Amino acid sequence: MQLTRFTDLGLRAMMLLAAGEAGDKRITTRSIAVGANASEHHIAKAVARLTELGMVQARRGRIGGLTLTDAGRQASVGWLVRRLEGDREVIECDGADPCPLVPACRLRHALVAAKEAFYRELDEYTISDLTRDAGLLVISGPQSRLGHQPDRQLSERTAR
């Protein structure tokens, strides 16, 4: 099953937040975008949804930033993916050009069962489980692939 980019970014944001907390770092939408190699706009949309779900707390201001809530640390990855993906099918059988095999097709039911098995497996893990390895802390700073701090890179680019 292929996850949407939105879900991918939501999971990356959660993992970077968890790793950043372990490293006692202030995490912002911008720093997550750099760490996840994604646009700040897309990360902001994912973080807004995570905030609606009660997974992330956002604080504005000079000492603001993003933190995981207790619910965010304890939620299963399967639960989170279900909420971020929404209730969509693996393949679209009834779309604008409906499949002529729908009345007698068993594939749709097999795919529903496979999707549920996928989610059940993800239910075995929490974000905390996925970030226990200290290796993730390398990107949680977050730093670019070149090892420079994102704020420094941004200020160098805008100064040119």
UniProtKB/TrEMBL annotation:
<dbReference type="InterPro" id="IPR036390">
    <property type="entry name" value="WH_DNA-bd_sf"/>
</dbReference>
<protein>
    <recommendedName>
        <fullName>Transcriptional regulator</fullName>
    </recommendedName>
</protein>
<keyword id="KW-0238">DNA-binding</keyword>
<dbReference type="GO" id="GO:0003677">
    <property type="term" value="F:DNA binding"/>
</dbReference>
<feature type="compositionally biased region" description="Basic and acidic residues">
    <location>
        <begin position="148"/>
        <end position="160"/>
    </location>
</feature>
<dbReference type="Pfam" id="PF02082">
    <property type="entry name" value="Rrf2"/>
</dbReference>
<feature type="region of interest" description="Disordered">
    <location>
        <begin position="141"/>
        <end position="160"/>
    </location>
</feature>
<dbReference type="GO" id="GO:0003700">
    <property type="term" value="F:DNA-binding transcription factor activity"/>
</dbReference>
<dbReference type="GO" id="GO:0005829">
    <property type="term" value="C:cytosol"/>
</dbReference>
<dbReference type="InterPro" id="IPR000944">
    <property type="entry name" value="Tscrpt_reg_Rrf2"/>
</dbReference>
<dbReference type="InterPro" id="IPR036388">
    <property type="entry name" value="WH-like_DNA-bd_sf"/>
</dbReference>
